[in-house]
Amino acid sequence: MNQHRSDLHALAAAYALDALDPAERADFAAHLPHCEECRGDVAEFEATAARLAGAAAQDPPPALKDRTMAAVDGVRQLPPPVPATGAARRAPRVLARKAVPLALAASVAAAVSFAGLAAWQYQESQDAQRRVQQAERQLDAVSTVLAAPDARTVHGRATNGALTTVVSSDRLNQGVFTATGLPTPAEGTTYQLWLDQGGSMRPAGFIGSDGTVPLAGDIAGAGAVGLTLEPAGGSPQPTTDPLLLLALPA
Questions:
Q1: Fewest beta carbons within 10 Å, which of 6, 135, 172, 179?
Q2: Where do the domains of the chain lie?
């Protein structure tokens, strides 16, 4: 990066991701004890990276074992074989003829039940894998922006009390949005992000709770980042007063 000392404040994100060269890291480490703002930025970026990394390493759903065992318990099993007694040998042949289709039906039912269980487990596994892949892509996108040489950071507070941070890179034409203390939205609503591009608000994605998300759209041409509460699914244009309109560095 080879940035001048006056730009040390811009290195907080790269420092948190261990993306500085040794000389820059030494300079920033010497600066950090004397700058409360940078210490706060580093702590915030480290916490965000940890949350995203955790999202990319998901354990199986806790209820998976219980649901599997419950499904197994519901499968009817065949009785164990019992040596034939004299009375059984004298039983009418009609009973033996009936027992064969009953046993076959029970076997088919068990096979169908296990097939359904296997398909359900496969779907659960596929869904979990897709969530992990999505989290990994998001982590890569966020890490790339935070480590950009020209990364710029601005902070703001939404009208609902949430603390927000935007990190943007003109060179990458990308940005990320972080929220802390974001209240749970009312049922049927969602938080929607916006980019103010020449006075026109363009949709820039959603954030459902505390965390960090990439901003969709051309961040390089945006003058501000907005946050509103919209109906579930989002809106093409803001329909409520902005909770946040955070100006980006020129």
A1: 6
A2: 1-55, 64-143, 148-250
Any idea which fold 1-55 has?
A: Arc Repressor Mutant, subunit A (1.10.10)
Least confident range from 113-122, 205-214, 235-244: namely 113-122
3-state helix vs strand vs coil in the chain, percent to 5: 45, 20, 30
Confidence (pTM)? 0.53
Q: Which residue has the tokens 């989290």?
A: 135
Tens digits of residue pLDDT in 97-121: 555 555 555 555 555 555 555 565 5
Burial 135-159 (b: 16+ CB within 10 A, else e): beebbebbbbbbbbeebbbeebebe
Identity at 186, one-letter amino acid code: A
Tokens 């420092």 belong to which residue? Answer: 15
User: In which band, very low, low, confident or very high, does the pLDDT at 81 lie, cut at 50, 70 and 90?
Assistant: low
